[in-house]
Fold this protein.
Amino acid sequence: MRSSLKILATVAVGTSFAFAGAAHAGEPYVGASAGLNLPSDSKNRGEFDEDVAATADFDAIAAGTDLDWTTELNNGLDLNLHAGYRFDNGFRIELQGFYNKANVDLHRDLAVGGTVIDALDSAVLTRGVADPANPTVGAVLSTDDGQIKNYGLFANALYDFQISETFVPYVGAGVGFVRQDVEYQPSAIDVVDDKKTRFAYQAMAGVTYKLSPSFEVFGQYTYRNMDRGDYDVNLLPATLGVKSEQSLFNVGFRIPFGGG
């Protein structure tokens, strides 16, 4: 959390002192945007909350043993609503509501106590009976069942660089809260199905093109980082921290009220 706030503060201070030229007369606006969510691989790290008893085929796992794996995610859709106010010194403040999701491509490199167990019999997870006919852990995980859904609210501060009357690049940063729904169901096995509210920050850069005093279009890139959330694992007595980062590419429109 502390490192996230430090990065955000650096971006915000840099934005605040960038330029002081006027951009538009003070006016409120509303808008909407849609685009592509390009999520980074989810680095899942947690630990066992309770001891797992030994069986005839598998050793015991002690409480506190590390558990981690990587989840690769497909690109998905990102949707946004915007409501803000543009000041006469180039700054804007904005509330942004959003929704996006990404489907799971596959899970890989499941490690227990630092040792990857993808090549082991999948019965090690269920504590069932080992059998040569059973799939390996890696085979069970390499399916695309599951998804991560996010929705929430950001408060953004942005600065418009008035290059011309119609062409306006901008930068900004924001903080907010994200409600994240994690569903990991490889090979139809219920591994994780849990929701958490998490702190997040983002940095944006884009360009606005004014078609008229009452209508403008924009394109924007956003980098978003969400604090690691602790999710309950259903398959095993464990808790899993899910790390989420996104690159978002959106196009949208704004409707200013006041005519600039």
Notes: The radius of gyration is 23 Å. The chain has a mean pLDDT of 88. The longest strand covers residues 91-112.
